[in-house]
Amino acid sequence: MKVHSLRIVWLAVGLTSLSVPHLVRADNRAPFCKPQESGTSCAVKIINSNNAALLPVAVHLLKGEPKRSPDTAFNLGLLHMVGKGVKKDESQAAALFEEAANLGHSQAALNLAQLNMAGVPRYDVTAALRWFRVAADGGNLVAAHNLGLILLEGTLAPRDIASGIKYSEFAARAGHEGAAFNLGQLYLYGKGVRTDYSLAREWFEKAARKGHPASQAKLALMYARGLGVQQDQAMFKQWLLKAARGGDENAMAAAKSMNLPIN
Q1: Which of 4, 52, 137, 199 is the most exposed place for a label (fewest CB within 10 A)?
Q2: What's the pTM value of the predicted model, to 2 decimals?
Q3: What is the pLDDT of residues 96-117, one digit of tens each?
Q4: Which residues have C-beta within 8 Å of that of residue 201, sequence separation ≥ 6?
């Protein structure tokens, strides 16, 4: 089976987590608003209604908040990012995400980091790393996963195995399958750490049981070779088939060569 090296996967900027703050004022300028409901809360309802004609109203409500909360700035940034109800302007989106991030919005910090990596408003690795760290320290799993990979690989920042493991473990323990897979890789191949097959198996199994095909393929390999676990051909075939049925190309090729029924 082909060895999968650690790699950074830049996930698309999240555009679905429109969050609603506590109620701060009444606003009856849109049909979705209720008495004492905040403009941001009403704007989110409009956005989620998929009523394109009312999107400018959502923008108006967000811009009209007397004191812009982190959620208000974040949601307004999302609208500028995709050009809904307002002209698409990624630079303005970045400015709004930065405003929200400075107020503690971890998803905004993640979005800003990814925009910095994409060259908005300019390509800035240093700024991106800072915002990834802000988002990760704020509990964002995707940011922790990305930052962990960056620190483990040492390509965009000085290699820091200890910090890379810390952020990757945080994401993996909270359910991020990719982070668990990367930790498995780290210990399986001794990338900057002592090879530890037992730890590798634990991390692969954690992701494999959540349906991660690449982890299932690696777990199959470990059962086949008796790495960190007693050699077991039945378990090897079981995990190999799960990986193949999940679309892992290496597992599919191996299963086919063994005449195992994938379908």
Answers
A1: 52
A2: 0.81
A3: 999 999 999 999 999 999 999 9
A4: 184, 219, 222, 227, 228, 229
